[in-house]
Amino acid sequence: GFIFFTVLAAFLIIKFNIQQSPAFFILLLVIVLFSTINDNSIIRIISSPGRVDQRENIETNFQQWISRRINRLRDSSVSGFSDSVYPIIIVAAEGGGIRGASWTAQALKKLNDLNPAFIDHVYAISGVSGGGVGSVFYTAYLHDRLNNELNISGIDKNFENAVSADFLSDLTAAFIFSDNLQRMIPFPVDPLSRNSKLEDSWGIAYRRN
Q1: Which of 76, 103, 137, 172 is packed most tightly, with the most Cβ within 10 A?
Q2: Stretch 137-158: mean pLDDT, rounded?
Q3: Main-chain phi, psi angles of 91, to 5 degrees
Q4: How far apart are CA 35 and CA 176, in angstroms?
Q5: How many angstroms separate the CA atoms of 174 and 195, rounded?
């Protein structure tokens, strides 16, 4: 990026007399003006059939969650089960960039490997930054595992590769090139969105591994 912009700046200096030519200042003014109206950083939202805009409150959600589990245990022949005691786990995942994402995802997976009933007791996972990304990697893995969409052979190494992949190169390239090109265009262009580059890097790493 530095090399590219150094060459570009050298070309402009050779081609134009920046101190005397108004073209450079007009271009600068246009970039500043366009950058206020061409925001393409809208977060993409997955549409879902039957999606309800109004979220249910925590009390209602929890009552439904615990009732399903209690009824399932009550119907099964679990010896010594008492419906007055049911362990509930709430996960809080710290941030920490790629390292936090990798640690969170692998820790949750390891807990589930040690005790397959672990996820049945997890009511909520709250994560920030890298911890949130790692939590999503784990839930995506769990979803595909439960739906038999994964090749179990070598899954541990593949999962580790997915959550510790390089998520920053595409984002940095978009910051250096796409963002600056977008500032010169008066309307938002979705392929130039830096947000989507980060989101896509997570999906690509997961699918590839």
Answers
A1: 137
A2: 82
A3: -95, 130
A4: 15
A5: 9
Measure CA 36 to chain center. Answer: 26
According to the model, what pLDDT value does residue 88 have? 92
pLDDT at residue number 53? 65
Q: Which long-range contacts (CB under 8 A, 24 or more apart) does 13-18 make?
A: none
C-alpha dist (Å) from residue 41 to 3, 58, 89, 128, 196: 26, 31, 35, 20, 8
Residue 139 corresponds to which amino acid? T
DSSP character string of 63-110 = HHHHHHHHHHHHHTT-TT--TT----EEEEE---HHHHHHHHHHHHHH
Q: What is the CA radius of gyration of the chain?
A: 25
| pLDDT tens digits, 94-122 | 998 889 999 999 999 999 889 988 998 99
C-beta separation of 171 from 194 below 8 A = yes
- How close are the terminal C-alpha atoms of the chain, in Å? 29
pTM here is 0.74
Q: How far apart are CA 156 and CA 136, in angstroms?
A: 17
